[in-house]
Specification:
Layout: E1 3-7, H1 19-29, E2 33-35, H2 47-65, E3 72-77, H3 79-89, E4 99-105, H4 125-133, E5 136-144, H5 154-162, E6 166-169, H6 185-192
């Protein structure tokens, strides 16, 4: 059993046809402890509000896990990854805590959320890498080759600055419900086995 925290993105109200919603349902059926908070004011999100709820959910997750050694897995999509990274940079995650695994799906490139100034990250690449590596033991970056939120290429715009090698799924867009990403077997398999083929539809 794993303890899984799912962080959704901008405008997401956890619709039934989104892979994160389906992931939460399937993992709960399998016996995992899943935390899938609805972040407030999703049309005009504010980092202070979102980071407060992130920390609160994470505290509850860790209290629930107690002294067990079950994995803690963080799954973020789009703005949910900016939330996690900025929270790590700003020292808002529990002191000494490292998730066992972090999955970053389709994070926008720097400047991609300029309409949300509270989420702006001013840290340089070294500081970002340090904060990210201090938030999780293992980090997986997944995206596509035609994501409008990373027009300069996921590897070039996100992977290289963060020191990560991206897994690229051809033609997957932003990996959103609008792009047809409802059921995603690969991410379900990945939670259960980090060596699974996460690209599997």
């Amino acid at each position: 059993m794993a303890y899984v925290l799912i962080n959704h993105g901008w405008t997401n109200v956890r619709p039934q046809d989104h892979w994160q919603r389906r992931l939460s349902v399937e993992l709960r059926r399998q016996g995992h402890q899943v935390f899938y908070p609805q972040y407030p004011n999703t049309q005009e999100p504010n980092f202070e509000d979102w980071s407060w709820l992130l920390r609160s959910e994470l505290d509850i997750l860790l209290d629930t896990r107690g002294d067990s050694h079950d994995e803690v897995i963080i799954v973020g999509h789009s703005l949910g990854n900016v939330l996690w990274l900025k929270a790590a940079i700003d020292g808002l995650l529990p002191e000494g805590f490292l998730a066992d695994r972090l999955l970053m799906v389709a994070p926008p490139e720097r400047g991609g959320v300029s309409k949300l100034p509270s989420f702006d990250i001013t840290a340089g690449p070294e500081e970002m890498r340090s904060a990210l590596n201090s938030s999780a033991w293992s980090i997986t970056l997944v995206g596509s080759d035609n994501d409008p939120w990373s027009p300069n290429g996921l590897q070039n715009a996100v992977g290289d600055p963060l020191g990560l090698s991206a897994v690229i799924i051809s033609g997957a867009g932003h990996l959103s419900a609008k792009d047809g990403w409802g059921h995603w077997q690969g991410v379900i398999d990945w939670v259960n086995d980090p060596d699974a083929d996460i690209t599997r539809r």
